[in-house]
Amino acid sequence: MNKRLLLFVSLVAVALLLSGCTEYNQPISDSSEGFWNEFIVWPLVSAITYFKGLLGTYGFAIIAVTIIIRLVLLPLMIKQTRSAKNMQEAQPALKALKEKYASKDAVTQQKYQQEMMALFKEKGVNPMAGCLPVLIQMPILIGFYHAISRMNNTPTIDLGAFLIFPLAEASITLAIIAGIMQFIVLRTGPAMDNPQMKIMMYLMPFMIVGFGVVLPSALTLYWVVGNIISLIQNLVIYRPWEKKEVAEPVKKQPVKMNTGKSVKTKAGGVKK
Asked: What is the spatial distance between Cα 181 and Cα 201, in angstroms, rounded to a whole number?
């Protein structure tokens, strides 16, 4: 199994485990105790409540908090996107290295690893750049789930609706929109040219839709807004419309061997 896919599945498993933690359906307040409550869930609830007071609805408040979170993570996301782009550009050289060091003995593989790391350094590729933003966003995403769930179970809080979507309830329509947005983001990013990431490009949207049809629309709204920001980021950095066309290899013409036999021409001459 591909290492990135294994990491992704592991993170999803951890997310599902943490999302089932106790207290997720309990009311939330500034007196709630515990590291998770004090430093992740309550700050998110406070931020959403604050912007609700400024903007009038919880829907706009969630959008504002999502934009702020993504702006904070923007340097990491840009670094991830650029590293993925550099990795894609390094693929021909990486393939050549694999062919050069095809032998599986320890000495050859050690040389392969050394030259591969040198290639990554030269091309500006950081293999860990793709993992760090995911690791940072996962607690935030789980925290958002807990914040919305606990706000929904707090008698003094009414999440209301955003457009036609009740934020406290699941929405199939919004879930489908989130899945489509996720596919567009992956389609305009490095995954479009990376065979190892293509499975994620088709798997992730279905997973987003699956989560969206059972989770509150407030969390799905977070995904939609986050994906809109990611799409803008991809268009600015990756520029999918500037994809370089791969030139077709020039076909070699077969070499005609001179057999020395004489061939009569139409003019009656002899051609060797």
From this structure: 11
Strand partners, 271: 263
Question: Using an 8 Å Cβ cutoff, are 205 and 172 in contact?
Answer: no
DSSP letter, residue 189: S
CB atoms within 10 A of CB 48: 22
> In angstroms, rounded to a whole number, what is the distance separating the alpha carbons of residues 212 and 266?
79
What is d(CA 22, CA 149) in angstroms, rounded to the nearest whole number?
A: 12
Two tokens, residue 64: 């504002």
Query: Residues 257-266: pLDDT tens digits?
Result: 454 554 455 4
pTM score, whole prediction? 0.69
Beta strands in 91-226 (DSSP E): 161-162, 165-166
pLDDT digits (tens, 9 = 90+) for 124-141: 776 665 566 667 777 787
- What are the backbone angles phi and psi of residue 194, rounded to the nearest 5°? -110, 110
Yes or no: say if 86 and 123 are a contact pair by the CB < 8 Å rule: yes
Domain membership flag for residue 256: no
User: Does the residue 265 lie in any domain?
Assistant: no
All residues at 6 or more sequence positions from 192 whose CB lies less than 8 Å from its CB, including other chains: 186, 201, 240, 243
253/243 Cα distance (integer angstroms): 30
| Phi, psi values for residue 195, rounded to 5° | -60, -30
Share of the chain above pLDDT 90, in %: 14
What's the structural domain count of the chain? Answer: 2
Tens digits of residue pLDDT in 30-58: 777 777 778 888 889 899 999 999 999 99
Q: Which domain holds residue 165?
A: 24-87+129-240
Kindly provide the b/e burial profile for residues 201-231, where b requires at least 16 CB atoms within 10 angstroms of the residue's own CB: beebbeebbebbbebbbbbbbbbbbbbbbbb
CA 73 to CA 29: how far, in whole Å?
27
